[in-house]
Design goal:
The complex is a heterodimer of chains A (about 160) and B (about 775). In chain A, about 30% of the residues lie in helices and about 15% in strands. Chain A has a 5-stranded mixed β-sheet with strand order 2-1-5-3-4, with helices on both faces. Chain A starts with a strand and ends in a 7-residue tail after the last helix. Chain B has about 775 residues and is α+β, with helices and mostly antiparallel strands. Classes of the chains: A alpha+beta (about 160), B alpha+beta (about 775).
Amino acid sequence: MKSVVEFTLNGEGRAVLCEPRQTLLEILREEIRLTGTKEGCSNGNCGACNVLLDGVLVNSCLILAVEVQGRSIVTVEGLARPDGTLHPLQQAFLDHAALQCGVCTPGFLLSAKALLDEKPNPTETEVRYWLAGNLCRCTGYDKIVRAVLDVARSSAPSTPTR
Amino acid sequence: MSSTSSPSSVLVETPLRVVGTRPVRPDGIEKVNGRALYGADVQLPGALQGRVLRSPHAHARIRRIDTSAAAALPGVRAVITARDLPPAPDRVEEMGDRTTSLRYVTDNLLASEKVLYQGHAVAAVAATSDAIAEAALALIQVDYELLPVVMTAGAALAPGAPQILPGLRAERMGQRDPQPSNLASMVRHERGDLEAGFRRAKVVIDRRFRTETVHQGYIEPHATTAICQPDGQVTIWATTQGIFSVRSQIAAVLQIPLAHIKVIPTEIGGGFGGKITVYLEPLAVVLSRKAGSLPVRLVMSRTEVLTSTGPTAGSDIRIRMGADASGKLTAAHAELYYEAGAFPGSPVGAALVVSFAPYACATMRVDGYDVIVNRPRSAAYRAPGGTNVAFGVESVVDELAAALSIDPIEFRLRNGVKEGDLRPNNEPYARIGHLECLRALQQTEHYRSPLTGRNRGRGVACGAWGNWGGQSSATAALNADGSVSLNTASTDIGGSRASIAMQLAESLGISYEQVKPRIGDTDSVSHNDVTGGSRTTFATGWAAYELGQKIAAEMTARLAAAWKISAEAITRKSGGFASGTQAVDFAEAARIACDDEPLMVSVTVNPKLYGAGFSAQCVDVEVDPDTGKVTIVRYTIVQDAGRAVHPSYVEGQMQGGVAQGVGWALNEEYVYNERGELLNGSFLDYRMPTACDLPMIETVIVEVANPGHPYGVRGVGEVNIIPPAGAIANAIHQATGLRMGALPMSPPRVLSALLARKNGSKGCGAVSQG
């Protein structure tokens, strides 16, 4: 039995018919057809499906679609400004060559955004800890961590918060 | 083309403007804004969803399969088993990453008489939804007769071992064994009198090693969509390292003419050798044909990826090496038993050539055995076979150096190969950069700095990989505004669109931004070999170089005609064209050249002088004496790139290869129970390194130009994964005094070895005498 689920997706209202068993990931990819959110493992261990739910980082493969009624979701497609200008993290990933195959990139971008939203000036250790929920098999993480630190340094206040 | 004096060199002498810079990749924006389409992102209107039924047993005879209830389920449009595949002849063909019998390839797609590993496909379903397809799988009844399982090379070769592949008789150095066994083949390379060499040695080290099965671990699971029209025309969307390899495998298995198959590449979410073999694509084609030509999409789960694709061989290895008092090697001997999985084709052949590749030694024997076990059919994984054997060789070299009180890099320098020396298969090296890499490592701040802190150790190791050239074809069209549309069909798995476009821009004397690279389908250009063997930037890059030369020559000819002078009177100047009296910039020249007729050129290449790649690495580790956990404290990799076309992506290959090597060395392994069931088939339990498990990975790019490429390029993708396990083992030895003899050197193994030493017994991970 399907039910209507209403939520905000990247700033716009959406209403989708969902089966109770369907995950948020499946709804995003198969119903709304925003395929930037990737499925790498379906059990919350790779982070390729990460999205922000009311500003909190979640694995969309572990959230049922019916749970997001009335809530706000940001996916990788919602990171750039409406005019297409890239988010500083997106630009930094390009400038630092922080991706090779690119399939883990959307998840990393969302995790990094969640980190910098909460802690604008993290240490390298804090970046690594925060990104430990995202698997990348291509880069060895070096350039990803540098990209995130670069964005933090160029946009954060000079003294660490908290 | 100007070249150096050596007849075997094609190096251009002009200074480079584009090669060596770090532009943003052309496909970058789509990959950071979520618009790039990968395998599972292909969503065709009306597409059916497929699922594959896989064997829960590691070894069993299939008595009967009943699909009638599944076929009758509303929404199910097709159910297939091995009977729906054309009968496969026992004919040997080049198939993806190996040359093998068509029968084995077909039998791996859908099991016919026996299932040979847990996860072996037995049936597939296409339905109007994924949920219905999943429900249909549960309705398929398979009657299995369980057979004894054989999980290791040792068990497979033991007398009286159950025969896995009926009738398999080993090919042993060209001769077929009279009796069947689980040995598929045995290969030997040798030179000199081995035992005489060992008699000349002052020190001989003889050790045995074990490495476990690991997976490539690409983040994108296998996925495909296929349509088979009623007239037999096939279209396939594939996430693959080689669309032409997919095409030829499907043509052979399904007996369809090559020209009737179009393979369209999607973006690929990692491969590392594991996305060459077809698993899903032929099933999707047959399902589509049976379901009235509707498109069929198949996507694997992560567990399916781990149980049914990939892994690289586990291995049993014996390494015996001797050196004289001056530290010169006198003899080297390797025996390698590699577990191919359920069908022949482990990377033991490549491993033989890797084995002692960094070492000049007149007396050498390397023996390789390809052994069948009830594990998934192994596939290529980054420098296939290299990491296993180098773990053993680099550990033994470290012991030799220590026994002779010689610095480990100095020992490697004394025995290091250079141009003219022989590889283990007795082929001579061309110009290589092995000694340069070792010296560069010696000079790093890391190696020169003192090691501080308790429970810490430092290890070094080196490695060599032959690299590859292979076939590429490409076309380029000059546009009237001076921009160039470049069409290749080489999978871009980590930035090769950029490195190939840069070589065309360099060749043509224009900016990188003026070249728009595109990766076409199998109908758009001619054959391209897979993106593998570290070949794409080298070989397809070479094709791009030649495209530039051809466009420039044609532009010159057309300008000459327009200006009514001879082509010889026109010279290139700052990207433009000039004669004695007139000069135009590139864009103006393009406008003139394209005025009357389009300008398009095509190139096909198969460059042979690909030039071996070398890497030397240094690692500091800290070993927790209470848990056995090994932490990577600092890591430096030196690698010869020949010439780094895009240094950022060269560094990325180096760092990525090290990270995979660290995972292989410290954590990753397939864990099976006694029934051959995989116990860790998820990313929670098959633990790959995270950002927390690694430090920054320091890189030093050495550039010893490859004389076999116009810009001196060597492949850089693979050699970096060969040294890490050996380097880390050597560092653990310095930290603890223990020689680890098995991978992974995970906390339980290291702790067991630490406790065993304390208790005076032998731990499960420590090395054994040969």
